Give the backbone structure.
Amino acid sequence: MTNKTKQHIFFVDDEPKIREVVSETIEQLGVKVSCFASAVDCLEQLGSQRCDLLITDVKMPEMDGMELLAKAKRLAPWLPVLIITGYGDIPMAVTAIKAGAVDFIEKPLDKKSFLWKVKSILQQNTFDDSYIGKPLTESEMRVLKLIISGKGNKEIAYLLHRSVRTIEVHRSHLMRKLDVDNVVDLVKRVAMMGLVELPAKQKRDNANQDAEKHQ
């Protein structure tokens, strides 16, 4: 893997020694690792840097891992988040999965299984397009919500007081960032991520399409 395509992992834990050990361990996979002492510091960088995997401890001061998960998913909904949980926190970890975490792993970390899990997640999250993995802008989010509600480019342009060409550009960028090439797949991706609330009819259509596939 070249430096140009080297994957980037964010690791968040308030204990310096743990950050040091985990960082050295993950770097064995040939990836770039950025460590953060707080969720706030992580979120500041998440908005401007590419991140292929976010790994965070649950129990931290100020903002815990659960809140970080929620905020990270709003900022970069496609981003896989791996939760590290202490003994006895399994119910919390299950809640994290329901909130969008890709998986959780218990402390103390077993080096071999931890690396295997990280490598597995990264392999499933390999992007070739430089747009993929970047956060949606506020304008793109507004356009996305209107697309999901069934609006066309001209109607969206009218509602947002923008030119049709501007809406087309936003639409192209958000679809590339979400790694889809048509509206049907866009709706499915958004539903899977829980990025925006789908209209009731759209939810029924998605359910019907999935049912037909499995017949």
Remarks:
- The domain at 8-124 is CATH 3.40.50.2300 (Rossmann fold).
- The CA atoms of residues 3 and 24 lie 18 Å apart.
- The first strand starts at residue 8 and ends at 12.
